[in-house]
Amino acid sequence: MNFTLLTTIAATGFTVAFFHAAIPTHWLPFVLVSRARGWTRGRTMAVALFAGLGHVALTTLLGLLIAWLGFQLDEEIGHAFAPIAGGVLVMIGGYYLWRQFRGGGICHHSIPGSHHHADEHCGEEAGDDSHWEKELKDSRLASVSAGDWTAISGLFLMLTLSPCEGFLPVYLSAVQFGWTGFVVLSVILAIATLAGMAVFTWLTLVGFEKLKLGYFEKWEAGLLGVIFILLGLTMWMVQPGAVHG
Q1: I need a surface site. Which of 34, 57, 80, 220 has the fewest CB within 10 A?
Q2: 105 three-state secondary structure
Q3: Which of 187, 222, 166, 138 has the alpha carbon at shortest distance from 26?
Q4: What is the overall mean pLDDT for the chain?
Q5: What is residue 115's predicted lDDT score, i.e. its pLDDT?
Q6: Distance (Å, whole) CA 104 – CA 75
Q7: Would you list the domain boundaries of the chain?
Q8: How far is CA 99 from the centre of its chain?
Q9: Nearest to residue 51, comparing CAs of 138, 132, 112, 120?
């Protein structure tokens, strides 16, 4: 097993998951709903992490499907899998760069119960946190007439039903390492996502309002594009031995 390549893939996965968690959709709605409903910081953090678990779980299930399909393909083509997967990653990276340059970015979910949709916040509004406050005015999540469990379940579904699409290609790059690669990446996904959500939610709760974290959303597609192209090139240059287990 080529531990250098596996370490590179693991570091890439952590970077993708952590900075994906910096996007306002992963922490700002929890803070805004918390303030509207008068939640304590502890309760807000607990709700955010609870929703994060759903987000991680669905992403991991999709990663499991990618890994299983990759294992079948790896058995068929053997040593050719690594360069082919590297080429796929380069193409995915090029697609993300194209999305960034055309101004579309990556469209993320909207708050349940509002009259706005995710595609309304792509392009020029990406990086602007104000649209979340506008959505809350039209949503039941911040309404005191709705119970706390209504708000909590809404936030949970909001995050769970929008898996981390940027992490899925990373699962593809680790197929050659078998179930070991899948488990390593799944653990990294959980740690990086929950840590990122906890850090950025807490910073916002304690008053670091001027952190321009919304720009991660604006430039996410471009960042992912560069990361996947570099990872694909690395797979071309470093040929691992395939080990399943």
Answers
A1: 80
A2: coil
A3: 166
A4: 81
A5: 46
A6: 37
A7: 3-237
A8: 17
A9: 112
Listed range (12-21, 127-136, 146-155, 196-205) with the worst mean pLDDT: 127-136
d(CA 24, CA 167): 17
State the residue for tokens 């349940």: 112
Q: For position 102, what pLDDT does the model report?
A: 85
| 131 in Cβ contact with 27 (< 8 Å) | no
Helical segments of the chain, H only:
3-21, 28-37, 41-77, 81-101, 130-137, 148-160, 168-173, 178-205, 214-218, 220-237
Residue with token string 């068929």: 76
Dist CA 26 CA 50 (whole Å): 12
Orientation of helix 220-237 relative to helix 81-101, angle to 10°: 160
Structure tokens at 80: 């050719």
Q: Using CA atoms, how far apart are residues 29 and 198, in angstroms rounded to an integer?
A: 13
Instruction: Please report, for residues 149, 150, 159, 180, 191, the alpha-carbon distance to residue 155 in angstroms, rounded to integers and kept in the order given.
Output: 10, 9, 6, 32, 20
pLDDT, tens digit, for every residue of 130-142? 555 666 655 656 5
